[in-house]
Write a structure and sequence with these properties.
about 30% helix
């Protein structure tokens, strides 16, 4: 069973502001509620081939996973795939103009294995709730920062 979760939000800031902040892995603990820490495995800034390790707590479990950037179009699209972690996952961010703001789409796709495979429906629902909350947290953080 495949996890395929797509979540989007329109933020009242230009794409370069939203993408500039959201695409920097160092900012993830501030707007991803489940991410506890981030370690750059390759030197910043973000580029194709960059590797970043995230430590997160999700559904009561502590997870450590390393993403590799496979596509990076600044201000438009970021694709990362797990190079190491509990199961193969691809995360895609896209940013596009929406009126005077930005439509940000967050997509998570993966193939759980073992127990996670059996729990895919629960995992998918929890991921969808978490992604919605994360995009709202991103909105709040960017508003506090004044864009």
């Amino acid at each position: 069973m495949t996890v395929d979760v797509v979540t989007e939000a329109v933020l009242d800031l230009p794409p370069e502001v939203v993408a500039g902040y959201a695409a920097d892995p160092s900012n993830a603990p501030e707007w991803y509620r489940n991410i506890d820490s981030v370690t750059w495995e390759t030197p910043p800034p973000l580029a194709r081939g960059s590797q970043v390790t995230f430590v997160a707590t999700f559904l009561g479990r502590r997870l450590t996973y390393t993403y590799e950037v496979t596509e990076w179009l600044p201000g438009a699209r970021l694709v990362m795939r797990t190079a190491q972690g509990p199961f193969p996952m691809e995360t895609t961010y896209t940013w596009e103009p929406a009126g005077t703001g930005t439509r940000m789409t967050l997509c998570n796709r993966g193939e759980p294995s073992g127990f996670a495979r059996v729990a895919t429906p629960v995992l998918t629902a929890a991921m969808r709730r978490a992604n919605r909350a994360d995009l709202e947290q991103l909105r709040s953080v960017l508003q506090r920062r004044g864009g």
